[in-house]
Sequence to fold (101 residues):
Amino acid sequence: MQNITAEELKQRIDNGEELYILDVREPHERAEFNIGGVHIPLGFVQQMQVDEIEDWKDKEIIVYCRSGNRSGQACMLLDSMGFTNTKNLVGGMLKWTELYK
Fold:
């Protein structure tokens, strides 16, 4: 697992890069605000229910949550499942909305 900042991610989105983004928050959090990506709450990741992103194993996956804590846990879990390039969004949506909302 590596880290990525909100500034780095925003620039990459603005540049039109093809990104593999995973939101591990709960549905009500996602409904309030999200930056896109596939939605798999952390509980499902913990139960290894990640079939939806199985073909991302060799891709760079940017994982986010509210503050960066759950996404960090998700990155470690994904790493243990054989995903090779996970990145945790430092500060999560709190940092993102502080900068860009």
Remarks:
- The longest strand covers residues 60-64.
- Helices lie at 6-14, 27-32, 42-46, 69-80, 92-100.
- The first helix runs from residue 6 to 14.
- The chain has five helices and five strands.
